[in-house]
Design goal:
By secondary structure, this protein is α+β, with helices and mostly antiparallel strands. The protein has two domains: 2-45, no CATH class; 57-185, no CATH class. It has four helices and eleven strands. The protein has helices spanning 2-17, 24-27, 37-45, 102-107; strands at residues 57-63, 66-68, 72-81, 84-92, 114-119, 125-131, 141-143, 148-155, 158-164, 169-171, 174-185. The strands form two sheets. Strands 1, 2, 8, 9, 10 and 11 form a six-stranded antiparallel beta sheet that branches.
Length: 187
């Protein structure tokens, strides 16, 4: 690494010293880059996706006005749907660390209130399951067509977006409302 830095410093000095003398106005102009320095400069200036910061999940999840606080989010590969790969994004109230099957265990209530959403590579939600202490039916409830993901991004080894129901939705006679912003390491 030190040799690369010294090599680039020497190349910069060579370019600066080989500049033709001129008036003060032209000497203030940037030195032309050599052909070999141009790719290195372009690579250094190439934009990279900044990692998403902040809490991994924030927002609201309510059933009939009763809030659940989801603080954990993980992702895992799921079986393909219609020939497309699917990623499970698992939101829970309790820590999932070390669990081999967080999506399945979340559905059995092992992590308290939870949402397991299945997402295709373009951000399309192909299904979801919810667990909430205010649901009349105990256990998980499977849903289709209720959730969508806004501002979905999958790059740099992370998945992020906003999981939403678009306002309260009637689910078997109960009002479910979800608006969660998240970022998680891709599986």
């Amino acid at each position: 690494m030190r040799n690369v830095v010294l090599g680039l410093a020497g190349l910069t000095l060579l370019v600066a010293c080989s500049k033709a003398p001129g008036n003060a106005e032209s000497s203030a102009a940037p030195a032309p880059a050599s052909a070999s320095a141009a790719p290195a400069a372009a690579a250094a200036a190439a934009p990279t996706a900044a990692p998403v910061t902040g809490p991994p999940v924030s927002g609201s999840y309510t059933v009939d006005g009763k809030a659940a606080v989801l603080t954990q989010v993980t992702s895992a590969k799921d079986d393909p749907f219609d020939g497309q790969p699917v990623t499970d994004v698992i939101f829970t109230a309790k820590d999932q660390a070390g669990d081999a099957k967080p999506a399945v265990d979340a559905l059995f209530g092992n992590f308290g209130d939870a949402i397991v959403v299945r997402i295709e590579p373009d951000g399309t939600v192909v299904g979801a399951d919810i667990v909430h202490s205010a649901l009349k039916e105990q256990g998980s409830v499977s849903l289709s067509g209720v959730f969508s993901v806004k501002n979905y991004q999958a790059s740099g080894g992370q998945i992020s977006g906003e999981l939403t129901t678009g306002g309260p939705n009637d689910v078997f006679g109960q009002k479910v409302d979800v608006d969660l912003t998240f970022h998680v390491k891709a599986p």
